[in-house]
Amino acid sequence: RKEVEQDPGPFNVPEGATVAFNCTYSNSASQSFFWYRQDCRKEPKLLMSVYSSGNEDGRFTAQLNRASQYISLLIRDSKLSDSATYLCVVNGGSGGSNYKLTFGKGTLLTVNP
Amino acid sequence: GAVVSQHPSWVICKSGTSVKIECRSLDFQATTMFWYRQFPKQSLMLMATSNEGSKATYEQGVEKDKFLINHASLTLSTLTVTSAHPEDSSFYICSARQAGGQETQYFGPGTRLLVL
């Protein structure tokens, strides 16, 4: 089983749509969880951390279910500028290091006018 | 704040040559820097963890003699790809963790390497 697994995508949605990304992770000892976005040929940029109680940042809502080792990201009222690859990221690799990030393969989102 | 730079941003070289990539934290001290590699349509894969003043820790399957890492100061880590081959062509990205225990990693803009 891959350490971090995401929806393979790609997702093509119209502007204004709501889109959900799903992610599962295999290391139950993982402590921190993040969503990053990566634009084409650019470095990943932190979108938001994910907390156990769930958290929201404007149009973005992240959820974490530790019991099922599942993370989600919901984007409401999607904009053209949301087009990017969304990466699910978990800290604590197979070696248990507190600072090693493990990245999912990413899900490409294209928002169409 | 928390800016990380990489140099060069892209490089094209002949097979067999060595390429050095620099990663700098511009406005903070980084006790730990990480080197990642990303092939097209793949996820970022951690290659090694670089700690200032000590030897880097390499991930399984990454040859330490081929990918030389030097973290000589709190603001600079270098990755040298020795005797590069076409299969080393990739997007190399570094990140830096701020000294003081903060977990957040700040990513550099990446270096695109093409080996002919």
In short:
Chain A is mainly beta. Chain A contains no helices and eleven strands.
Shape of chain A: globular
What kind of assembly state do the chains in view correspond to?
heterodimer
Question: With helices defined by DSSP (H or I, 4 residues minimum), what is the helix count of chain B?
Answer: 0
Q: Report how far apart the termini of chain A are.
A: 37 Å
- What is the SS-derived class of chain B? mainly beta
Shape of chain B: globular
Give the beta-strand count of chain A: 11
User: How many distinct beta strands of chain B?
Assistant: 11
Helix content of chain B: under 10%
In terms of DSSP E residues, the strand content of chain A is over 45%
Helical fraction of chain A: under 10%
Poorly predicted regions of chain A: none
Largest sheet of chain B, described in full?
A: 7 strands, mixed
What is the CA-atom radius of gyration of chain B, in angstroms? 13 Å
Most extensive interface between two protein chains, with residue counts: A-B, 21 and 22 residues
SSE pattern of chain B: EEEEEEEEEEE
Alpha-carbon distance between the termini of chain B? 37 Å
Which regions of chain B are unreliable across 5 or more consecutive residues at pLDDT < 50?
Answer: none
Radius of gyration of chain A equals 14 Å
Please give the count of helices of chain A: 0
